[in-house]
Amino acid sequence: MSDIKKFLYLNRKAPYGTIYALESLEVVLIGAAFEQDVSLAFVDDGVYQLVKGQDTSEIGMKNFSPTYNALGDYDVNKLYVEKESLEARGLTEDDLMPLTYEDEDDDWAEKPSIRVVSSAELADIMDEQDVVLAF
Amino acid sequence: MPIEVNGKTYETDEEGYLANLSEWTPEVGEAMAKEDGTELSDEHWEVINFLREYYDEYQIAPAVRVLTKAIGKKLGKEKGNSKYLYELFPYGPAKQACKYAGLPKPTGCV
Amino acid sequence: MSKLHTVNKSPFEKNSLDACIRLAKEGGAVLLFEDGVYGATKGTVISDKVTAAMKGLTFYVLGPDMKARGIRDDQLLDGVKVVDYGGFVDLVADHDNVQPWL
């Protein structure tokens, strides 16, 4: 279909200090109903959104990190994480949640959703988009 | 409008969704259904319990498209279609079943 | 007696921690909370700066904010002390005054 547009949600904020991360996630879930080509990018402090082992029981806020694992059900399965942002924060892919999706075209095989990319690769990916929504 | 079950009062929002999901019991779900004129069958409970498990794992109530696909995978093709789910929950499977399950309205559902 | 400095912003987004380290007098304490806790983690672009500042300042992080963000004890810079809400109150009580870096 020619009316499918490429949407990229650009996430640059840490999860709990501001409302941006949660707002972005909710917009992604709502937007998924429109069946566009959706991908997410995590750069700068945005990479903290995907860190595993989050436990908000003592700060009185909802832990929304498990919701990233539902994105595959919404056909959102391209989560780009900028390598340079991880490195600046002393993080590696092993510090992130192992997010997966089931590939309908490959007998529901479970595949990783997270792709660690360099700044240069991400710049190309962003350049290919019809719409980039920044949070 | 708060609802009363076995002498205990439960707060709900203006659309009848339970205000505090940790207060939910199956009896609360049944009372909510009764107010809508629905008697909950085993088939209803299959869907309600599925939604509660989904929420427990992902912290969201799934959109109807996601629910339909997931039910089909878990309970079989004959149940994973909108005809079956709308027969059980005529006000919208995600919307109505989430209410009886004590969950918030699905994200993106108006 | 000395000052308690508090920082609640990510050091990668704002320069609050940087300013705090630059202007805090030796012997003071720094409590990192909310997004400020990221400043106490190992292997970051500012780890060396924070470690150097620990010669003159004592660093604390608020445990509940650390846990919320998935930071484990072993990811903290050596010498950083973890406190709970009660410990936060004790720190405030034990210092002359509190200097927030917003």
Brief characterization of the structure:
The complex is a heterotrimer of chains A (135), B (110) and C (102). Chain A is an alpha/beta fold and 135 residues long.
Topology:
The complex is a heterotrimer of chains A (135), B (110) and C (102).
Chain A lengths: L5 E6 L8 H12 L5 E6 L36 E4 H6 L11 E4 L5 E4 L1 E4 L1 H9 L3 E4 L1
Parallel strand pairs in A: 1-2, 1-7, 2-3, 3-6
Antiparallel strand pairs in A: 4-5
Chain B lengths: L2 E3 L2 E3 L15 H10 L6 H17 L5 H12 L6 H7 L4 H8 L10
Antiparallel strand pairs in B: 1-2
Helix pairs in contact in B: 2-5
Chain C lengths: L2 E5 L8 H8 L5 E4 L14 H7 L4 E5 H6 L12 E3 L1 H10 L2 E5 L1
Parallel strand pairs in C: 1-2, 1-5, 2-3, 3-4
What features would you describe in this structure?
The complex is a heterotrimer of chains A (135), B (110) and C (102). Chain A has 135 residues and is α/β, with parallel strands linked by helices. Chain A has helices at 20-31, 83-88, 119-127, and strands spanning 6-11, 37-42, 79-82, 100-103, 109-112, 114-117, 131-134. In chain A, the strands form 2 sheets. Chain A has a 5-stranded parallel beta sheet with strand order 6-3-2-1-7. In chain A, strands 4-5 form a two-stranded antiparallel sheet. Chain A starts with 5 loop residues before the first strand and ends with a strand. Chain B is 49% helix and 5% strand. Chain B is built from 5 helices and 2 strands. A two-stranded antiparallel sheet of chain B has the order 1-2. The two termini of chain B are 19 Å apart. By secondary structure, chain C is of the alpha/beta class. Chain C has a 5-stranded parallel beta sheet. Chain C has a single domain (3-101), classed as Hypothetical Protein Ychn, Chain: A, CATH 3.40.1260. The chains are: A alpha/beta (135), B mainly alpha (110), C alpha/beta (102). The A-C interface holds A 13-17, 44-45, 48, 51-59, 61, 63, 65, 88-91, 95 and C 8-10, 12-13, 34-35, 38, 41-45, 47, 63-65, 67-72, 75.
CATH superfamily of chain B: DsrC protein, C-terminal domain
The figure for the number of domains of chain C is 1
What is the strand arrangement across the widest sheet of chain B?
1-2
Helix content of chain C: 25-40%
The major beta sheet of chain B can be summarized as:
2 strands, antiparallel
Order of helices and strands of chain B: EEHHHHH
Assess the beta-strand content of chain C as a share of residues.
15-25%
* Spans of at least 5 consecutive residues with low confidence of chain B: none
Give the helices and strands of chain C as they follow along the chain.
Answer: EHEHEHEHE
List segments of chain C where confidence is low: pLDDT < 50 over at least 5 consecutive residues.
none
Distance between the termini of chain B: 19 Å
Strand sequence of the main sheet of chain C, in spatial order? 4-3-2-1-5
What name does CATH use for the topology of chain C?
A: Hypothetical Protein Ychn, Chain: A
Could you say which overall geometry of chain B the principal axes of the C-alpha atoms support? globular
Counted beta strands of chain B: 2
Supply the number of structural domains of chain B: 1
Count of DSSP helices of chain C?
Answer: 4
Alpha carbon gap, first and last residue of chain C: 23 Å
